[in-house]
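ok so i was messing around last nite and threw this chain in just to see what happens. nothing serious, just curious
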Amino acid sequence: MPKRIIVTDKAAPPGGPYSQAVVAGDFVYLAGACPVLPDGTWIRDDFKAAARQSFANLAAVAEAAGASLSQAVRVGVYLRDFADFPAMNEIYVEFLGTENLPARTTLPVALEGFQIEIDAVLYTGK
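result:
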């Protein structure tokens, strides 16, 4: 199965040697999205703003792949401070709603320089 690499300037550029997303068959694999504006500016001190930007980056990459976050079947959320879990859930609902939700893992991890990272897998088939 051939894969298609997704690149968009409407989201933060990759911070290393990886693709923003890869389409393989009926699936879109979205790389971890961080709280970075498309111009490379980091959001560091406001968790809710950081979470919104991370989700906005994820949504922009999904759109570049011809999909949307409503097609998510799995989401991974990585938090530097698990005390931010309630605020993350608030922002999560803004982007993913409350119906037909994907499976999700939320983990506290040692993130350097930012408070949140989010990745996802989307299913675009029937």
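not much to say yet. DSSP finds two helices and six strands in the chain.
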